[in-house]
Amino acid sequence: MPVKIRLQRHGKKGKPFFWIVAADARSKRDGKYLEKLGTYNPNTNPATINLDIDGSVKWLENGAQPTDTARALLGYKGVMLKKHLKGGVTKGALTEEQAEAKFNAWVEEKAAKINSKATGLQSDKDAVASAALDAEKVVNEARIVANTPVVEAPVEETATEEVVAEEAATEEVVAESTDESAEKE
User: Fold this and answer.
1) Euclidean distance between CA atoms 78 and 91, whole angstroms
2) Cα–Cα distance for residue pair 89/95, rounded to 1 Å
3) Cβ proximity of 42 and 50 under 8 Å
4) Which of 6, 28, 51, 140 could in theory staple to 67 by disulfide, Cβ–Cβ 3.0 to 4.6 A?
């Protein structure tokens, strides 16, 4: 019986969620499977992949063929590397401890890359949010200034009365000066 490691679609329309399964090659895409090996959620950034690494290696060693997408996911999680290292142990090129040490070092390096990407995405998201908040503050301040009632109207009336009083005083001074100039003539 030819066995494939492939994705089985779940989730709702527009929000796919996949199970990574070992299934008979002749079964339907979402049909009967032999073993569930993990899950894959492409809706998150970075994508979330949970995988039984040892179970996947066991199926690969027994002749299961992964589909292209499943092979990419298995390679991303290190299953293909672990299978390769197990082949080296079988041939005597490596000891079990050396193979395990190489695999663990690779896993730690991969986890560091994923964490740096996640923190970079979060910092970009925070920067965009703070810029939006600053822009919103500017718009709100402008809106508050535009909507404040004009309190200067009564002040202008008193200012107008003062201006009128000053004009009257200057007219009296001008009239007195013209009277004095008329008397001199």
Assistant:
1) 20
2) 6
3) no
4) 6
